[in-house]
Design a protein that fits this description.
This protein is an alpha/beta fold. The protein has a single domain, classed as Vaccinia Virus protein VP39 (Rossmann fold), CATH 3.40.50. A 7-stranded mixed β-sheet has the order 5-4-3-6-7-9-8, sandwiched between helices. Strands 1-2 form a two-stranded antiparallel sheet. The radius of gyration is 17 Å and the shape is globular.
Amino acid sequence: MPTETSQDRLLDLLETPPVRTTAGYPDLLGDRTQAGPPTGPAQVLMSVGLVSAIYERYWRPALGRLAKGLRGPSMTGEVDLATDLLRLRRGQVVLDVACGTGRFTRAFGEAVGPDGLAVGLDGSRTMLARAVEAGGAASVAYLRADAVHLPLRPSTVDAVCCFAALHMFGDPEAALDSFASVLKPGGRLALLTSARRDCPPIRELDTLTGLASGQRMFDRGEVGDLLRARGFTEISERYSGVTQIVGATH
């Protein structure tokens, strides 16, 4: 009897079959360049080939350090924090939304082991090509799909991670609804997103930066309130610079 692959397991989670399977991942967006209309320069750059080539080693760490400040966690620290917040165990199913080149997804694949499944979801072909090329554990699979309206069946994953992307979505609240829908009862959520600072002059600068780049600047505490409204509990919030890392239980 043939062994079930991680991609087979991923296909079992989908509400509808993919348009096609190409370059090592199922594609639900087909010929569309992205799931929805672009929200601004920050999002558009995610599909540029040069950006994907330097994203994991240079682009994301540099921008992350700028946003988090000197006291914020490193990229490796982010991966460790996300893994801890998600409370990953062997055999679980974890979804990495807006996975980029798959650094978090690969770590999650190691955490859930061969009997688990780590799915990296992104809308960018160039990012996913890099992710597939990087390989990873046999429990890792990738998917090109809409990150705001997830194509997975309800209550099918144990954990959802979305680091450095929620603020670039056209409808972040709809994305949170979708995260809640696919999580099993008791499932965990981990987010890294924007956090506008409270001091009035700096707050205005944060607002202008968000407008110029097309990113939503959340107020401190706002994401936690949005999660409580959706039934999440055990909410933790950690701030550094203009970012916040949030953990919650569904």
